[in-house]
Amino acid sequence: MRYPVMIEAGDENTAWSVVVPDLAGCFSAGDTLDEAMSAVEEAAAAWIDAALDRGREIPRPSSAQSAMEKGDFSGWIVSYVNVDPALLDDTIERVNITLPKRVLMRLDAKARESGQSRSGYIAHMAIG
After folding, report:
1. Is residue 26 located within the same domain as residue 69?
2. What region holds the HicB-like antitoxin of toxin-antitoxin system domain (predicted)?
3. In Å, how far are 26, 50, 51, 70, 77 from 46, measured between CA atoms?
């Protein structure tokens, strides 16, 4: 997915600022434009991951023109950030893992204590 971003140029005294208007509150900064753009990719991915964990809907990317109208971005540079669509994929996938038997027994006991299945317990720990 390709989200428009608004960039406010930095200088020797201020950082470059990057805002993703479609993802409310998602922004980053960097001493250079390259740093700021790299950071905004991470920020957008983290924003989407957190929203999914909370059961929130992920906004579709808007046009650059629409994104510009979501704030006071007069004089800002417009660019785009790519977000891997796999971040939005909650398809259940069966996996095979290898664990020592003693670890598996502890895992199963913890899952039972929490009232979850093994898979549910592992997912809960990962999202946690």
Report:
1. yes
2. 3-126
3. 9, 6, 8, 21, 23
